Structures are given as structure tokens and as C-alpha cells.
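Running co-folding for NAP.
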Amino acid sequence: VKDALGGVQSVLVLGGRSELALATVRSLDVRPGGRVLLAGRDTVALEATANDLGRDLGAGVTVEVAGWDATESAGHAAFVGQAAAKLGGDIDLVLVAAGVLGDQDRSETDPAYAATVLDANFTGVAAALLAVAGQVRTQGHGTLVVFSSVAGLRARRANFVYGASKAGLDAFAEGLSAALAPAGGRVITVRPGFVKGRMTAGMTAAPFATEPEAVGKAVAAAVSGRRDVVYVPGILQAVFGVMRVLPRAVFRKLPG
Ligand SMILES: NC(=O)c1ccc[n+]([C@@H]2O[C@H](COP(=O)([O-])OP(=O)(O)OC[C@H]3O[C@@H](n4cnc5c(N)ncnc54)[C@H](OP(=O)(O)O)[C@@H]3O)[C@@H](O)[C@H]2O)c1
């Protein structure tokens, strides 16, 4: 992930318009000569995002875009190979940020819709992680950042479809971390709480709500440091340590 001076060289963002991922890239030390590839569904919108990001990262850093849909799992392996080629051969850092909050009420009456939420957040992203893992094994190095959520630590009545998808992704990241370590790969699991931004627009902020920039800084610190599980804000580690062991009857009475 780092050049001789500690900078990042090549970054693939899966979910290229994610506020949390973009805040992370802005907090990373991407050196001149570095390359960033923003991958997502809407390549026209991504071009504008790439222009803004390129301006912020400064001359000498190349920001490109590529079409990619998390739910099109059959194409993930070929896509990762093409992404590596675009990034100069190796992918040092992959930010896996694709995801949707989904509409819980609709999920409960429309199972096919619920499946699209589960696919975008878990099935498709997990398949993409396996494709990236293949690339890491070939390279012998690489860091994967997986955007999980505290919502996956104990599913709540109000958003259990999303919570379950993140629980699956979180468990997957834990196992993949163990699988890739002998091959030189590293997996960082990020568990943000409520982040004020696009995904939560119009919602009442939860306790300990944070901002995308705080998430970006915490993730960048983890990439250059040693922490492999990151809560943002950090206090949520203790809060959810308690949440997970509360008796069910008590947990259900909590607001939200
Ligand atoms: N915001 C929060 O409060 C919060 C808290 C905890 C965890 N997280 C997790 O952190 C990650 C990033 O969240 P964020 O706040 O940055 O959200 P965001 O700004 O809404 O970004 C989500 C990204 O996922 C992309 N995406 C959705 N479905 C996709 C699909 N099928 N294929 C490809 N890309 C797809 C979106 O693409 P489009 O631009 O095309 O829609 C968007 O770029 C998500 O996994 C989210 O669940 C967020």
C-alpha cells in the first residue's frame, strides 16, 4: 500500500460515489504518480466526481472511472483484472463501499425488493471481495477496506434487512481477513455508526452521529497503521459491546 515514502499508489473504489469512500481517499496520502479508479453504476455522474476528486488530490494523481454493478457477480473476476491493468498492474488498496440502506417497510411486503438490498450489500459485494482476493493472492499484497456497520452487530426491528446484510458482510470480512493474511493481504473492517450524509438524508440522527470526514480520517489512519477493526466514532465499540449482550426483552425496548 505504501511507496518508499509511505504514500498510497493505486486505489480501487467499489461504490465510487460513496461519501465515506471519497472522504477516505481525500484523507489518504496519495502521492504524485498515484492512480485512483472510481467504479460504480452511473459513469456519467462518476466523471464529475472524478474531476472534483482529481482537483483535490492535485496534479500528478490520476483519477479514472469504470462501470461496475455490485449485483452483477458474474462479471466481478474480469472486472478486477481490468481494474488492475488500469491501475498499472497492482491494486494496493480497495475500498469496498457499495451499499444501500433500503426501505425496511417495503422489504417486509416485497421480498423481491428485499433481495435486491441483500444483494447490493452482501451477496454481490462478497462475490466482488472474492474476485479482489484472487488479485491479492496473485500480487502477494493488498489491503481491502470493507464498509460494514454497527447495524450488523445486532439487528434492530427498524432496519433488520440492512442490519442482516451488514452482519453477513462483517462475518465474511472476518473470515477473508484470516484467509488472506498468509498471502500478504490485509482486510480492514469499518463499523461506522450513523453518518450524516447522503445515505441518511432526512433521517433523525442517532446518538453518536458522525460526519463522513471523521470516517475518512479514521479509515486512513487504519490503512497506515495496524488497526484492522475500526469503529467510528470509537466509543461505539463500548456501546455495542453492551448492546450485544443486553437481554432481548431489554434490547427491544430501546428507541429506534
Ligand atoms: N452513511 C451511513 O450512515 C453509514 C453508516 C454505516 C455504514 N455505512 C456503509 O458505508 C458504505 C458507504 O456509505 P455512504 O454513506 O458513503 O453511502 P453513499 O454515499 O450512499 O454511497 C453508497 C455507494 O454505493 C453505491 N451502490 C449502491 N448499490 C450499488 C450497486 N448495486 N452497484 C454498485 N454500486 C452501488 C452507490 O452508487 P450510486 O451513486 O450509483 O447510487 C454509492 O456510490 C455503505 O456500504 C454503507 O452501508 C454507511
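Result summary
Residues 15-21, 40-42, 69-71, 97-100, 120, 147, 149, 192, 194-195, 197-200 surround NAP (CB under 6 Å).
The chain has nine helices and seven strands.
Job closed.
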